[in-house]
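ingest -> validate -> predict -> emit
validate: passed (alphabet ok, no gaps, 163 aa)
predict: started
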Amino acid sequence: MQVIFSHGKESGPWGSKITTLAKIAQHHGHQVDSLDYSAIANPDARVEKLIGRLAEVTEPVLLVGSSMGGYVSLVACERHPCAGVFLLAPALFMPGYDKQSYSSGKQPICIVHGKEDEVIPYQHSEKYAAQSGCELHLITGDHRLNSSMDQVTRLFTDFLKRF
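emit:
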């Protein structure tokens, strides 16, 4: 399976979170890729970049997105079939983003969001989880989730075991 990571607005394609999770995915036998969106400020233009990358993939895909990358991954999955989606503090229901409603397919979706997030209210993830029935883990941590990476890595490992 191909695991494609999408980073947040102010991070890069191989930040500490993505690097940590990519190593876990590789350990479980998956190929990994992380797109560089740093020159693209608009979240919906980032979606188009991911859709372009997905068109090149011939094997099942698992999308992993953090913050704005969570929005990008979820919206892209609506337009291109994915095996699953793992989201960290996704930027859902944010002012200025084109999409404000999201459909949920049959693929498993797991959201991890810090209860002390100062950038994206965790209630946005609660709202999506209530609408979609997806898995939601509200954990101790701020937007970056750096202080909770042990828990994030456990949840990601458990998610990967489904595939």
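The longest helix spans residues 16-27.
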